[in-house]
From TrEMBL:
GO cellular component terms attached to this protein's record: membrane
Name of the featured protein: Phosphatidylglycerophosphate synthase
GO MF assignments: phosphotransferase activity, for other substituted phosphate groups
InterPro entries assigned to the protein according to its UniProt record, in alphabetical order: CDP-OH_P_trans (IPR000462), CDP-OH_PTrfase_TM_dom (IPR043130), CDP_ALCOHOL_P_TRANSF_CS (IPR048254)
GO aspect biological process, one term: phospholipid biosynthetic process
Record bears the keyword Transcription regulation: no
Domain of life: Bacteria
Keyword check for Signal: no
This protein's UniProt keywords: Membrane, Transferase, Transmembrane, Transmembrane helix
Family note: Belongs to the CDP-alcohol phosphatidyltransferase class-I family.
Bilayer-crossing regions: 83-103, 109-131
């Protein structure tokens, strides 16, 4: 829901920052993998209840995630890079609730499991539609610079990161936040399934149209 606005705010700073790795010869894929490896450090930090340290690694991961996109737009967007980026993003997103489950299994495990379950709904509806939209050459007027068709929803990347920040700032309320955000994710999943189905129904494959 908020991605289109947050992207508009951070686009220019990231564009300027991308000049540095480009100048020293780093590729967008190298930045993607580096950001993911940094993000992995949030797992032990949160597990051992160093929540502020976990928040730092989450923030660094997201900065690298924005930077790799800006760098890719300088060097040329590729399907391989888009595939790598989205795959590592989804792994990172699922890792954070898992870390909180490890930190306090009795209090957090069920809520964390529900949230990961909810991420399956948002993730599968997102990726499945992107595949079908690509086959039908459906244009995306909102996120034209993305390598995949980004179908929107109530809970997008911006809301997910805001949720992770709340987890780290208020770890004692992880379960309540996770249940609430998971429920919102299912609203997103339902609307994506409906909107995606209707859109694909109205855009048959080109070779069978007419």
């Amino acid at each position: 829901m908020l991605d289109r606005y947050s992207i508009a705010v951070i686009r220019w700073p990231l564009k300027q920052a991308a000049k540095i790795p480009d100048k020293i010869g780093l590729t967008a894929n190298q930045v993607t993998v580096s950001g993911f490896l940094i993000g992995l450090l949030a797992l032990p930090a949160i597990t051992y209840e160093y929540y502020w340290l976990g928040l730092l690694f989450i923030a660094l991961n997201r900065i690298f995630d924005g930077l790799d996109g800006a760098l890719a737009r300088r060097q040329g967007i590729t399907d391989a890079g888009g595939f790598l980026d989205i795959t590592l993003d989804f792994l990172f997103y699922s890792m954070i609730p898992f870390a909180f489950a490890l930190a306090n299994p009795e209090q957090n495990a069920v809520a964390a499991t529900f949230l990961v379950f909810s991420f399956m709904g948002t993730g599968s509806s997102f990726l499945a539609f992107a595949i079908m939209a690509s086959k039908r050459n459906i244009e995306n007027p909102v996120y034209q610079s993305k390598s995949l068709y980004y179908i929107g929803g109530l809970t997008e990347g911006t809301e997910t990161i805001a949720c992770f920040v709340l987890f780290c700032l208020f770890p004692g309320y992880f379960a309540e936040i996770a249940w609430t955000f998971g429920a919102l994710c299912w609203i997103t999943t339902a609307t994506r399934i409906w909107a995606g189905y209707q859109t694909l129904k109205d855009h048959p494959p080109q070779d069978s149209a007419g």
